[in-house]
Specification:
The chain is of the alpha/beta class and about 625 residues long. Among the domains are: about 70 residues; about 60 residues, SH3 Domains (SH3 type barrels, Roll), CATH 2.30.30. The chain is about 45% helix and about 15% strand. It contains 16 helices and 18 strands. Strands 10-9-8-11-12 form a 5-stranded parallel β-sheet, sandwiched between helices. Strands 16-15-14-13-17 form a 5-stranded antiparallel β-sheet. β15 and β16 form a beta hairpin. The radius of gyration is 39 Å and the shape is globular. The N and C termini lie far apart (about 80 Å). The relative contact order is 0.08. The N terminus and C terminus are likely disordered. Belongs to the glycosyltransferase 23 family. It is found in: Golgi apparatus, Golgi stack membrane. One of its GO terms (biological process) is protein N-linked glycosylation. Pathway: Protein modification; protein glycosylation. Keywords: Coiled coil, Disulfide bond, Glycosyltransferase, Golgi apparatus, Membrane, SH3 domain, Signal-anchor, Transferase, Transmembrane, Transmembrane helix.
Length: about 625
């Protein structure tokens, strides 16, 4: 009795189970087909498990192998001698053809839909990655808020603490609202290259405008034809409008996709880190045995100069790893000393007592060093201004357009100096010169928002300037106190009222949106420095009528040439890319003045062809002070 045996090939491909039943006589062929189907048509290393969905990929080798098997089957069938097997042979051929067609359909089906499936998977993966990025950012923000809740300043009053907590709760609620709204507007940290190029473009637009405006004005003075002069005035006005529009677009670009939020977050994170390092340095666990730096506040100069002297002392203390002790008794502005006006520089360590005292740079293991003024310190450490710490330099460079100002440091403000600096450090500048730039600021602002009031905080040591300002410029609202100006006169400068007045002026100046002043003024530079702690994107929010920014007693200030320059006149420098220029100043007409360190030649060069050469020095990294979670996650 003949027993018919069957072989089953069971695969699940795209949820379709296909069973092929082959006659035992053709079992060898069926096994070969099954082997081919389960091994050759799938990707190498792929296992086919029961109930598993697979996508087949076509294989020329597989198709060739199938054709060969069918040919062999037909040959074997043709060799069969019994005529009684004709019907069986025909059935076998039909079965083999059916198997062949099924396999072709199985292979080609996934191909027809592969592109569509790939696109669908790509879309889903992209969406998932975006959602993960949003969750990561929200997680970082929540960590930062949690860290802020943990840090409580015990010196603050209850009302201040409650106000701070209320503000933090509002921020947390805003973040929660964003999370619940399902916002997927991701904020990516900008690269350092993007930020540097963006700021350089802004600077180059301004330099081009200064150059073009100055050249047109010079040409105008040489023209006799009135019509030509009128045309040149029109060109200057149109050129100014071009400049405003370009800067407005760049300002929009600066804050697009949350970049403004990133700068505020990064500025706060970096500032908090430095403040915690200073707190650690100024409040050692063992004050008796801590190394100290003694600084005498009474430098023979005015308020702004003395404040910069304290900054210098702090920088040296930070750079040397010593606790700063500020000796301020008998201070010219207040006989009771620094602490009667400001917070102490330390909460727990204010005594210079120690084993061994020496003048800078000291000897052996002297516990206390007396620091001379910056003008006479020798040897001069590398970390004096204009240097910034190496371990923070990358973050500072990406965050700020002038890192040294941020390191040492809204309402429009103008600081007008007319007394002691005139004829010595600074030239006299009429109020009209200041107001030209104030008016330009508001013209620029009008492109971004509706300007209904044009307010100016006016600070000066000349009380007559207030009446002059209101009389000559009725379209502006001037805010300021003429009595402060009176107290700033040389005869009454070192009084309590004068001190309170200048502190008030500096505060309001630093809170403004734009500063017009002379950088030869110490007060102006202090306000500009403090401004950077209020607004993380305020490096270019100023116009100086004389000097560029500097720190009194600083190490050399250099520019690095980024574009070569062929001299166009006898007073111009020949420059090669990479040259270092010792800068003497900016003429605010498209040219700066300096000395080429390579050729030793002095002269003018186009300002846009060079950029600040940042000075980076080794400072202590204070590993005892941990970076906050938000900044360390980057």
């Amino acid at each position: 009795m003949n027993h018919r045996k069957y072989i089953y090939i069971s695969l699940k491909v795209q949820d379709t189970k296909r069973r092929l039943r082959l006659n035992t006589k053709y079992g060898t062929i069926a096994r070969q087909v099954a082997s081919l189907f389960s091994h050759r048509l799938f990707a190498p290393g792929t296992r086919v498990n029961r109930g598993e969905k697979m996508q087949l990929r076509p294989s020329k080798v597989a198709l060739t192998f199938l054709s060969t098997m069918i040919f062999k089957a037909e040959t074997r069938i043709g060799e069969m001698p019994s005529p009684h097997m004709a019907v069986g042979v025909g059935k076998a051929i039909v079965v083999l053809l059916a198997v062949w067609l099924i396999i072709i359909l199985l292979m080609t089906g996934p191909i027809l839909h592969s592109n569509e499936n790939d696109e669908h998977i790509t879309r889903r993966l992209t969406k998932a990655m975006n959602e993960l990025e949003v969750l990561k950012r929200q997680n970082d923000e929540l960590r930062a808020i949690l860290l802020e809740f943990k840090i409580v300043d015990v010196d603050k009053s209850k009302d201040q603490l409650l106000d701070d907590l209320h503000e933090k709760l509002n921020k947390a609620n805003e973040l929660l609202h964003k999370a619940e709204s399902g916002s997927t507007n991701t904020v990516c940290d900008p690269s350092a290259q993007f930020e540097n190029v963006r700021r350089r473009i802004i600077n180059q637009v301004n330099e081009m405008w200064l150059y073009t405006k100055n050249e047109l004005k010079v040409l105008k003075t040489k023209m006799d034809d009135d019509k030509t002069k009128i045309k040149m005035d029109k060109m200057i006005r149109l050129e100014t409008q071009y400049k405003r529009v370009i800067l407005n677009d760049l300002a929009t670009l600066s804050n697009i996709d949350g970049l403004g939020e990133w700068r505020e977050r990064e500025a706060k994170s970096l500032s908090d880190l430095i403040q915690r390092r200073l707190h650690y340095l100024q409040n050692p666990k063992d004050c008796k045995n801590a190394k100290k730096l003694n600084c005498n506040l009474n430098k023979g100069c005015g308020y702004g100069c003395q404040i910069h002297h304290v900054v210098y002392c702090f920088i040296v203390a930070y750079g040397s790893g010593r606790t700063l002790i500020l000796n301020s008794k008998g201070w010219r502005y207040n006989k009771d000393g620094w602490e009667s006006v400001f917070k102490p520089v330390s909460d727990s360590c204010t005594s210079t007592m120690g084993v061994g005292s020496a003048m800078w740079p000291g000897y052996g293991d002297a516990q206390v060093l007396d620091l001379p003024i910056i003008d006479s310190i020798s040897p001069r450490p590398d970390y004096l201004p204009l240097a910034i710490p190496r371990d923070l330099a990358a973050r500072m460079q990406r965050l700020h357009g002038d890192p040294i100002v941020w390191w040492v440091g809204q309402f429009l403000k103008i600081h007008v100096r007319r007394t002691d600096k005139v004829g010595t450090e600074a030239a006299f500048h009429k109020l009209h010169e200041y107001m030209l730039h104030a008016g330009e600021f508001y013209q620029q602002l009008a492109l971004r928002q509706n300007v209904t009031e044009r307010r100016i905080y006016l600070a000066s040591d000349d009380p007559n300037v207030f009446a002059e300002a209101k009389r000559s410029f009725p379209g502006f609202e001037f805010i300021g106190d003429p009595n402060i100006a009176k107290s700033a006169a040389m005869a009454t400068r070192y009084t309590d009222s004068s001190l309170r007045g200048i502190i008030l002026d500096v505060h309001f100046l630093s809170m403004s949106d734009y500063l017009v002043c002379t950088f030869s003024s110490q007060v102006c530079r202090i306000a500009y420095e403090i401004m950077q702690t209020v607004n993380p994107n305020a490096a270019s929010n100023f116009r100086s009528l004389d000097d560029i920014y500097y720190f009194g007693g600083q190490n050399a200030h250099n520019h690095r040439v980024i574009y070569s320059h062929e001299s166009q006149a006898s007073n111009e420098l020949e420059l090669m890319a990479g040259d270092v220029i010792g800068i003497a100043g900016n003429h605010w007409d498209g040219y700066s003045k300096g000395i080429n360190r390579r050729t030793k030649q002095q002269g003018l060069y186009p300002s846009f062809k060079a950029t600040n050469k940042l000075q980076i020095a080794d400072f202590p990294t204070y590993p005892e002070v941990k970076q906050n979670e938000l900044s360390s996650s980057r």
